[in-house]
Design brief:
- By secondary structure, the protein is mainly β.
- The protein folds into two domains: 30 residues; 317 residues, TolB, C-terminal domain (Neuraminidase), CATH 2.120.10.
- The strands form six sheets. Strands 1-24-23-22 form a four-stranded antiparallel sheet, with no helix packed on it. The protein has a four-stranded antiparallel sheet with strand order 2-3-4-5, with no helix packed on it. A four-stranded antiparallel sheet has the order 6-7-8-9, with no helix packed on it.
- The longest helix has 27 residues.
- The N terminus is likely disordered.
């Protein structure tokens, strides 16, 4: 009798395990409605493509803004590629991939996140680590607001100084601007940095901060992305915790999603879809998941499509493919790839 019961238990466990495995396979075998367009982005004057950081759309829905980290990555230089370069790291591309505006040369050590507000002003974070910030250098640990043509309009943080107060950041990874002009900054590009969200008014006045290092709701380990949906909710890519955390604009925790993998970049289109770039799911950091871009419903969190990254070693923890993602008004998608040094365009080929 006991043997029979044990056999039934084992059979049930096996069935449940198979169902779970099946659902995992199904979740990653979703349709891909995109086709990659290689060599789309063209840099002027023979400039070679460096690591591509944050990408976002201009308010016109046509032009693409991207962070290009200066020179091609030299050995041992990932993390401070713009330290000794005067190349412009903030570039605006037209629909054909031509650069039509650029600025910011000499102003950053490691430009990272980017957002464009409703007035076309461009916000860029410098996420250089404290260890890679040279003594006396007045760059890094800041968020700079530019006009659409590159005039500096505001600087948040104390350049060159890492800290945790109301006027300091420690490697701010990303920034998003609300419709009313409020500024939300994902402050922390490592498990050991501030790991908080900081909110400022449109005039640059500190309002509040929330979060700390940890695993619980409202705690973070490497805030790599921050974005806002059409309802005004704040989505944070809590990358080392393999989840997205969702808050209202006062920092009230609403939900967490793990179905989008290990999130590095988050973008919302005007049709209620969320796009999440996952460049780090591997056999060590997020076993059982694959790298790529997942697309889903911003309200329910249901994942509908998956653009699988076809290159990269799942046993490697260095990351590969798109860390950042944006979508134009025609539904074409753009992936910012640091490690492979590409601004990759994807054309939507079916609904």
């Amino acid at each position: 009798m006991i043997k029979a019961i044990n056999s039934r238990c084992i059979s049930l466990i096996t069935i449940v395990a198979l169902l779970l495995i099946g659902s995992q396979v199904f979740a990653q075998a979703l349709p891909n409605p995109y086709r990659a367009v290689d060599t789309w982005a063209k840099l002027p004057g023979g400039r070679t493509m460096g690591a591509v950081g944050g990408v976002t759309m201009d308010p016109d829905g046509i032009h693409i803004w991207a962070v290009i980290r200066c020179d091609t990555i030299a050995p041992g230089r990932f993390g401070n590629e713009c330290l000794d370069s005067d190349l412009d790291p903030v570039l605006k591309f037209d629909a054909e991939g031509n650069v039509v505006e650029s600025f910011g040369g000499g102003m950053f050590i490691w430009p990272h996140g980017i957002d464009v507000d409703n007035n076309g002003n461009v916000w860029v974070t410098d996420a250089v680590s404290e260890a890679r910030t040279p003594d006396g250098d007045t760059r890094g640990h800041q968020v700079i607001k530019f006009s659409p043509t590159g005039e500096v309009l505001m600087v948040l943080g104390t350049p060159g100084e890492a800290g945790s107060g109301t006027d300091h950041f420690n490697a701010p990874a990303d920034v998003v601007i609300a419709d009313n002009g409020d500024v939300f900054i994902a402050d922390g590009h490592a498990n050991t940095t501030n790991n908080r969200v900081v909110k400022f008014s449109s005039e640059g006045t500190f309002i509040k901060a929330w979060g700390k290092s940890g695993y619980a709701p409202g705690e973070f380990r490497t805030l790599h992305a921050i974005a806002m949906d059409n309802e005004g909710r704040i989505f944070v890519g809590d990358r080392s915790n393999n989840r997205i955390q969702i808050f209202d604009q006062e920092g009230e925790f609403l939900a967490q999603w793990t179905q989008f993998g290990r999130p590095s970049g988050i973008f919302f289109d005007d049709h209620g879809s969320v796009f999440v770039a996952d460049s780090e799911s591997d056999d060590v950091q997020n076993p059982g998941w694959e790298m790529g871009i997942r697309i889903g419903d911003a309200e329910t969190g249901w994942v509908d499509h998956f653009v699988l990254l076809l290159t990269g070693d799942p046993r490697s923890t260095t990351g590969n493919g798109a860390e950042f993602v944006a979508v134009d008004r025609e539904g074409n998608m753009y992936g910012g790839e640091p490690s492979t040094q590409k601004l990759q365009k994807y054309v939507r080929v079916r609904p």
